[in-house]
Amino acid sequence: MPELPEVETVARTLRPGVVGALVERTRLLRASSLHPLSMPLSRLKGRVIADVGRRGKLLLIRLAPGGKGGPATPDRMAVHLRMTGRLMTHPAGTGPGTHTRCVIFLRRADGPALLHFDDVRAFGQILLGNGASFARWDFWRTLGPEPLEMGPADLAARLKGGRAVKAALLDQKVLAGIGNIYADESLFRAGIHPCTTAESAAGRAAVLLEAIQAVLRLSIAQCGSSIRDYRDANGDAGAFQNSFAVYGRAGLPCIRCGTPLEGMRVAGRATVSCPRCQRQG
DNA sequence: TCCTCCCTGTTC
DNA sequence: GAACAGGGAGGA
């Protein structure tokens, strides 16, 4: 499930194959894979891809200046991979797979190529737009800061209320890019129980942010985690799943103290923590 | 602040 | 053939 490290890896691996490429045409195979606020995908035609970046869990494809200009002209495309989305380039002539939702036909210096957006569970979405249209997108407008670029005082100020700290970490308005895996892994590393209230975890914001950043950096260095679906733009799996301390390890011994890890449900998500190493309150 | 829904493949 | 995985929207 692509969270920040996985999307970062996709951006890095996608870049060499698409930057500088001209979009010759597009084909949308599933209408619901286009976000309701999106411009028609056909407006990509004739545009050149300038760069590939990331904001939180969103992959951002930036377009070089061009087109007619004006409010109907896109300058960026956001892709939310959600659980099972994949972006991969393929040789020209490669047919769409069962779960291909969108095909972008590219013209590169070395000839034609395809960019496929595949998504088994069809939760992922593409949003083509520009600065003005993104400003009308609530999710974009309210997206919290990048965890690798924020400071502990900012995190402390954002941890408010009596909800579980894990719920706060999953809230993209608090900080952008953390999902179920990295929430659990960060809380274990920080020694904070997931059910601790956000306001009381605010007192340990420095430790928590350090844990979040360490976990994200370690995962990025290993090209993310592959549970089952995730692959980068080259089709390669990540390796960080081999370093999980708690995620998916309910009932197994804690790597630090040997106590069986506890599985529970927090914020509607499967949650694993160590009852001994992670203190509540 | 919490729950349900969306969606489909995998696992029990 | 049901339970489960889960991010975010929307409703209770």
List keywords for this structure.
281 residues, alpha+beta, four-stranded antiparallel β-sheet, 10 strands, DNA-binding
Q: How would you explain this protein's 3D organization?
A:
The protein has 281 residues and is an alpha+beta fold. It has helices spanning 4-18, 131-134, 138-141, 152-158, 165-170, 180-190, 198-201, 205-221; strands at residues 22-28, 49-55, 58-63, 76-80, 85-91, 100-108, 111-119, 125-129, 262-266, 269-273. A 4-stranded antiparallel beta sheet has the order 1-6-7-5, covered by helices on one side. The protein has a 4-stranded antiparallel beta sheet with strand order 2-3-4-8. The chain starts with a helix and ends in an 8-residue tail after the last strand. The protein binds a DNA duplex (12 and 12 nucleotides) through loops.
Radius of gyration: 20 Å
Give the ordered list of helices and strands. Answer: HEEEEEEEEHHHHHHHEE
Distance separating the two termini: 30 Å
Overall body shape: globular
Number of E-state strands: 10
Q: Which stretches of 5+ consecutive residues score pLDDT under 50?
A: none
Biggest β-sheet: count, sense, barrel? 4 strands, antiparallel
State which percent range the strand residues make up. 15-25%
Number of helices: 8
Average pLDDT rating: 95
Approximately how much helix is present in the residues? 10-25%
Structural class comes to alpha+beta
* Strand order in space, largest sheet: 1-6-7-5
